[in-house]
Amino acid sequence: MSPRNKEQFKEIRDQRQQELRRSAIQMFSQKGFASAKISDITSNAQLSHGLFYHYFASKEELYIEVIRDILYDFIDLVEQAAEFEMTALGKMEWLTEATHSGSIKEGVYRHILVLQALYSDHLNELAKREIVALYKEAVDGIGSIIKTGQQEGLFVEGDPEELATYHLSLAHGLLLWNARTEKPVQLSTDKVLRQLKKTENGGTC
Amino acid sequence: MSPRNKEQFKEIRDQRQQELRRSAIQMFSQKGFASAKISDITSNAQLSHGLFYHYFASKEELYIEVIRDILYDFIDLVEQAAEFEMTALGKMEWLTEATHSGSIKEGVYRHILVLQALYSDHLNELAKREIVALYKEAVDGIGSIIKTGQQEGLFVEGDPEELATYHLSLAHGLLLWNARTEKPVQLSTDKVLRQLKKTENGGTC
DNA sequence: GTCTATACGACGATAGAC
DNA sequence: GTCTATCGTCGTATAGAC
């Protein structure tokens, strides 16, 4: 077996892994952990169900990995926003829009998946604590942005972390609601950010 | 069989039904539809699992009834708020606190249950539409309160229904988050309502 | 109305051929 | 690496005794 072949195998393995993860996000969030069958996940990724166990030890293992993936992505997004060369308000606008970009359904599925993981008992407390910790990392990142916004004098006073929590609550709640209505309310970054901004007409007051 | 006995039987039936519904809310929301076994629901209500089918035709039937119950309760709550003799702001404050009262966990479980119902495929589209319609009824009720608040000049301008959606998104999102953190952020009705109020210091400006 | 026992199907996981 | 066939388990729903 040449090293060439070894590499090729590894590539195939990685690619299949990725396909299964993608498929799992879809299935788990649409059907929930228990109802998403292995065969749902594999057939959606166009593999046989037997092959699943060459890539993951169990259904539960895949579940937790997928949730980790989602949260890492979200943390990345926040970090990306933080590094832009713009005002805190601009960063928050960008972040708000990015959270709601792409397919609405996709965003909402990912969010529900995290919720389900936290509030069901498929996962042990240790795993749940890890998830909470990752989410908190994202909240802290947003808190930092808000803090600079306060120093710029554009944002209301108050504990930045608490304000970040309020912001995320609003953004995600809205995401959920929008995904179900026939004609979704056009997302208004303005309105989502209203609670953060000091006043609408600043110095002219 | 005397009429006296007939009545007694009916009472027992009703009571058992109620016990099963209560138990089901707990189990469904904690474990999800698929993972909540009939035996979980019955044993939690201290009945044998066989007896379940004397009260409900299937697990799915109970599921949808329970969700209806939750939404009817919520609509009642909004109507109650609307009928008070107070300003719109007072009504919204009362409603916000009522939503977060009782055990936090209980409130959050009920909310998650509705979400799960909407975003999983245990329910057919018809049932989902009914749920959305009920939820919308509650949103409309809140929208009405907001409208009077605008006429009083205390609330920001904008489509009342849209503002109601934002309010609920924030309130429920916060509920979810609070239930998972070790030391929940003390609910601040003030901050939840900030997005609705016109300015913090009104006429003195 | 309440219970226990059981039929029946579904699904996670494994074995073994290719 | 990929597939099909199969085992073992678990859970819904039913049957039938009390």
Derived from helix and strand composition plus strand pairing, the structural class of chain A reads mainly alpha
Total helical segments of chain A: 9
CATH superfamily of the largest domain in chain A: Tetracycline Repressor, domain 2
Count of distinct structural domains of chain A: 2
Assembly form of the protein: homodimer
Whole-number radius of gyration of chain A? Answer: 20 Å
Describe this structure in words.
Chains A, B: Residues 37-56 bind DNA. Chains A, B: This is TetR/AcrR family transcriptional regulator. The longest helix of chain A is centred in the N-terminal third of the chain and has 33 residues, at 3-35. Chain A folds into two domains: 1-56, Arc Repressor Mutant, subunit A (Orthogonal Bundle), CATH 1.10.10; 64-200, Tetracycline Repressor, domain 2 (Orthogonal Bundle). In chain A, α4 (59-83) crosses α6 (104-119) and α4 (59-83) runs parallel beside α7 (125-151). Chain A is elongated and about 60 Å long. In chain A, 73% of the residues lie in helices and 0% in strands. Chain A is built from nine helices and no strands. Mean pLDDT of chain A is 87; it is low at 201-205. Chain A has 205 residues and is an all-alpha fold. Chain A has helices spanning 3-35, 38-44, 52-55, 59-83, 88-99, 104-119, 125-151, 160-178, 189-194. At the A-B interface, α1, α6, α8 and α9 of A face α1, α6 and α8 of B. Chain A binds a DNA duplex (18 and 18 nucleotides) through α1 and α3.
Search tags:
DNA-binding (chains A, B), Arc Repressor Mutant, subunit A, TetR/AcrR family transcriptional regulator (chains A, B), Tetracycline Repressor, domain 2, mainly alpha, homodimer, disordered C terminus, elongated, Tet_transcr_reg_TetR-rel_C_sf (chains A, B), DNA-binding, 9 helices, 205 residues, HTH_TetR (chains A, B), 2 domains, HTH-type_Tx_Regulator (chains A, B)
